[in-house]
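Supplementary Methods S3. Input chains for the assembly prediction are listed below.
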Amino acid sequence: MSAGLLGGVSLLASLFFSVLGLAFSGLAYRFRDTRYLEAAKRAAPLVFAGLAAAFLALEWALITHDFSVKYVALHHSVKDPLWVTLVTPWAALEGSILLWATLQSLYTWLVSRAAGKQLDVWRAPIALATLFGIQVFFVSVMVFMVNPFTAVAQPPLDGNGPNPLLQNHWMMAVHPVLMYLGFVGLSVPFAYAVSSMVVRRYQSWVHETRFWTLVAWGFLTAAIFAGGWWSYEVLGWGGYWAFDPVENASIIPWFLATAFLHTVQVQERRGLFKAWNFSFITLAFAATVFGTFLTRSGVIQSVHAFASGPIGVVFLGFLLLVLIVGFGLLSKVSAELKDAGEIRFNSREGALLGGALLFGTFAFVILVGTLWPLVVEAASGAKVSVGAPFFFQVSIPLGVALLLLMGAGPVLPWRNAGTQVRRNLFYMGLSLGLGTGAGLALGLSLGVSLALGLFLYNLAAVALMFSQGIAERGTSLKISALQAFLELAATNKRRFGSHVVHVGVALAGLAIAVSQTYRIESEKTLRLSEVWNVAGLEVRLLPLTLQEESNRQAIIAPLKVRSTSRLSWGAGGSYQPRLNFYPSSRTPLAAPHVRYSLFNDYYFVLQEFDRDKGAWATIRLIVTPMVLWLWISGALIALGTLYLLLPNAAGFKKGATAPSA
Amino acid sequence: MRRFWPLIVLALGGLFWWGMQRPDMNALPSVLIGRPAPDFTLPVMFPYRASWGQSFQLSKHLGKKPVIVNIWASWCKPACYDEAPHLQAAWQEYQDRVLFIVIDAQEQDGLTFIRLFGLAFPQVFDPLGTVGVDYGMYGVPETLLINREDRVAGRHADPLDPAGFDKLIQKVL
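Predicted structure tokens for the full assembly:
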């Protein structure tokens, strides 16, 4: 059996079992019969098996250079290194939908295992029907519109390989998969929310989906950082975020999911904000579909866009369906969701709602900025673009407000603030003032000084909470401070994990402020052996070399760099910025050579070179402070999320016995 | 909000629908429209030399019938590969009334492409890409239309389907 045939048959089988799963879920709901539910549950692993087989078939076709499969002929070359071949399934539209559907079926299968147990028999049919419905959509799109296994009548002997940008850095093996894991993961809390609204049980789903939301949120966060890192290392402009429409489309669900993660705590604890939670999760999941629609419809131009085609229309339909289902159900039950409790502004729940509203506002303004060119063109026919300056202008006040609330929120107790809290807030305010003042005294810009103050303010918040918790436990149990700390960390992982995440976010805020403000950029055309004195460095160009690699040729401009100032200590040594020439691209791709340090990054890019004699090269140097700390903050957030998830395995089981409201 | 959400969803849907229906999302205004077509002389690809000579000079063919200039590249997948059969079909339909001339960057790659699709209209190659510069090309494939008055009458920066070719050519017939 050929890979193409196996893939095609596997896709058809998974479509069949998805429809079957959807039908059995519907019957289970209609007739309140658990036998149908059992049948639906059995369909879930079969769909996953079918899609996993199809995915492996595509990998097989790529590895064996089976150019009779159109996808392989268009996006693969025999010259591709093995790692490029293995990541080619998500290099283009058809394969990326297959990856999406495979991950979706994996989540559906995992959720189906909880059906009838933690997910009660009333809600399980609807939750499974929602997930099977999403699956039917994706598999149908593949079977009827963009089949990855379409055959070629006359297979070529070799193809062109994937987009060179995808071959230029190993991060491309990671970033899209993380993004899809995050996007697809949000379908689970959405399915639970839909089932809760249909069955009118509004409380227990928030406990049960916390694990899933955190998993999806963690993957989405990791994906956004990985995408930033890829952009920094590959695109050769020395930046990590450009507010490109599709970057925006990935951050909008992240903001909405973050808002949801915060308001959901209030519902868990006090049963409030039910309508907010249903709205946020519907919007977060719809935003993932919106991101997919943007990349595949060509409605807005972007560097991330896949080829546009008829698929845009079906994704638009799917997006509208998600919004109609979510908000249709919400408006039907909204009368039953009125909050019965009081919310004080200076309480934890007040801060959580405030934070969620800020995240929601952030998502909204980014959405407006992204769609503005389309709105203007529809209204007046003029073509405008909304660039990074707009997004920076709106991001700064919102970011500052979020960092302020992030520090204060966890310090505030539930319901009411007491004397100790006021003292804590005073110390935090003092840290903010001292940090900002110190920054200004050192001659830093106002923005960076404020970022420094906010970072110290958040550190102070976490330190105060740690120290008070340790002191209380140490005194009451008569144990050492270290033991008290270890016990607290082990027993209250949720709290400690969120502190780590918050420190990571505060550090990211500082790193972004510093790296955006103090960036030095310089460019010079150097002749061989010519010396360039720049940014405390002495840069000398050595003879250019040509390197042949299986899938590309590279021109390397070796640089001998000597540090001539105390500030650039550690930047000396040799650098090898290069231009990679891929057969499928007329323009070469720059591969910068970056040296990371705790202070400055030294980023050398080969811009152009003498193609006749190799006698000169144009070199660009970008020195950016604190970028390494941005990646460290990403790692901290990921670790904090992992830590948060640890007790959740136990909490997840506990949730099974929790009474539903 | 309870009453307004359907309106918001409807407005968003309408906006996106309109966004996708725009006739040519990649349309870029060309200053050349209505101006005389820049001339070029390029070497003719080997299979067409018997009928067209060693080189092709645009100005020698202007004024008799409208000209379609299609610029493509053999590395441009899948767009140029999708367009090639439609280009061949358009040539078969309009060859008596319109002159088709197709430009590629490299002769060797171009020949492989021609063998694959059996393209029958004259092809020339432009290794330095000067035509692209003269015509302010956006990307490949790109199709330019020159009318009988030697002026640029239309430009399309995307693969054309049969309807697209018809619509473009009908402008000058």
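Residues 520-628 of chain A form a domain with the Tick-borne Encephalitis virus Glycoprotein; domain 1 fold (CATH 2.60.98). Chain A touches chain B through 32 residues (CB under 8 Å).
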